[in-house]
Amino acid sequence: MKKRIARGLLILFTFGMIFTIILNVFFKIINIKSEFKQNAVENFWQIENIIKNNDDKLNVIKDEFEDKCIVMARTAAYMVENHPEIMEDIEESKYVASLLQVDELHFFNKDGQIFAGTNPEYYGYSFSMGGQIGYFLPMLENYSMELCQDITANTAVGKLMQYVAVWSGNHDVIVQVGLEPDRVLEAVEGNSISDIFSMLSADTASVFYALDIEDNQILGSTNAKHAGHNAGDIGLVLENVSENPSFGTVRIEGKDYYYAACISENLKIVKVCSKNQLLKNIPENILFICLCFMFLFSILFIGIFRFLDKRIIKSILNVNDNLKRIEQGKWDTVLCEKSLPEFEQLSIYINSMVESLLDFPQIMSKALEMSQMPIAICEYVQANNRFTTTNRVRSILSLNDEEYNEIMDNPQSFDTKLQELLVREPDYEDNIFFLNRGEKRFIKVETFYFKLSKITILIDVTKDIAEKQHIEIERDTDMLTGLYNRRAFYRLSDKAFGEFKYDTRGALVVIDLDNLKRVNDDYGHLAGDKYLLAMADMLHLFEAPDRIVSRMGGDEFIIFIYNISGNSEIEDLMDTIRSQRGHIMVDVGQDKQVKLEFSAGYALYPEDANNCLQLITVADERMYHEKLQRKRNMNR
Q1: Are 524 and 517 in contact (CB under 8 A)?
Q2: How far is it, in rounded angstroms, from Cα 120 to Cα 172?
Q3: Is the backbone peptide bond immediately before 84 cis, with ω within 30 degrees of 0?
Q4: Are strands 246-252 and 147-148 parallel, antiparallel or unpaired?
Q5: Burial of residue 390 (number of CB atoms within 10 Å: 0-12, 13-18, 19+)
Q6: What is the pLDDT of residues 519-572, one digit of tens each?
Q7: Per DSSP, which regions of 63-128 are E strands?
Q8: N or C: at which end does the chain have fewer Cβ atoms within 10 angstroms?
Q9: DSSP H helix total and E strand total for the chain
Q10: pLDDT in tens, 387-416
């Protein structure tokens, strides 16, 4: 017992430890993932703010630079309006450009063509040429317009410039100034996505990426060696990324990572973290749990077994010894175990139970007699050759005093006596027999084993079987003709088809009464019933064990024949049936008689069909064909 308890405790603690470890690891992973997601959301918010602040800073610089260009262009226009000679001298133009701190100064006529300025090589260029210079073409139609072009490469040499054009006050010329945007370019260069991400601080387990939303090019990363590559080349392939952060796993350069990703402006911002780094503390946690469980198990194991030895095992062994004596038939055994209140109470219950068992046969006999149920219960214990039974066994088996005393004195003879008195009834269940003495009665015998006892239950089911037979007759019989009804026909035919062998042959005959409606109309329904009974009386002659004769309803009858030897047998039967047509006279009252007329058709199994419904269909068609043929013959 102690070994079983020890094994049970060990299994219990092992499963408890495994379950705790699994639960701990499960929630630990959930916690780690949740923390990663929360940190990622915060990181994305910070990065978005950095990028936004950087964009705002660049926009301020660009706006200041544009304002400066516009002011210089307006100043140059004012000077040219008041001193037109500036346009006539290149050196004067360059001098004015140096005063205004601009790199280029151009003058366009009203046709949008450069005719003067600091760069003679551009003379002749016009707005109509398209490209960069074509940006200012709308000014030819609007004298109030001032245009500031974004930083772009100029048409002539492709140098990055920012151009601003305004009309002079007298609307004679368009003045254009051009500045090299060194400060703007320096600001842009120092605040690129690549620079921003290279300066982000991240723990050793995490890496940030900024991807181009169109081609997944890595524009910036805290891992410098990945910057400039395509994300797909390193395995960073993400689907369905939106403005709301999404999370999942990805494999980068052969290693598994958790990722968080979202879209901000025109960038995919991604944070990845190595699974190994995130889960590195889990083995230590598992080891700690195992050690705690082992310590607790050792303490509980020692305490439990000390208690078991002192207070339980000794008492259980004593109770078992006494129960074994009772099981062997020593019903006078009395338990008196007081080591624990529970054992004392158990002793009282067992002693009470033994007393109840001694009284049980008398109680059961009295209860069954009061219920007036024809049931007897017998118990035989082979270990001590003890036999007990309720009183009604004598009346059910029609035992006399001598036979009853013989069984009580020699319990082993009870089964032999049953075999002598009861004969198996083949038409019913295997456990139903009939008593072969006196009037025929049916006895149901149920036997089962319970521990060391063999229990036999005898039930007189004569009344039940009689009621069942009566119900079956009413259910399956047509009340007028005494033939099987439609329900019985289908049930019996289905059973017959289920028992067919591969070489079974059969036939189905459909018979339809002629003139039943005329008899009913002319002589009344009582005469119609006589007409139907005459047909049924004729068909009763064809009943046999391998035939099902049925009234399907109305004026339709069916004969189903199986296990026929050949087609000649059904032909002979049809000739016999048809020979009765017109030769049977039915008394319909009023001193009148009518001839019994009918039409018939048959179908063969398996030649015409292989199931009952198809056979009925074929036979029905042939019957109606015969009916039509007979009508034609009578009308000639």
Answers
A1: no
A2: 20
A3: no
A4: unpaired
A5: buried
A6: 999 999 999 999 999 999 999 999 888 999 999 999 999 999 998 888 899 999
A7: 104-108, 114-117
A8: C
A9: 18, 23
A10: 888 878 888 888 888 888 888 888 888 888
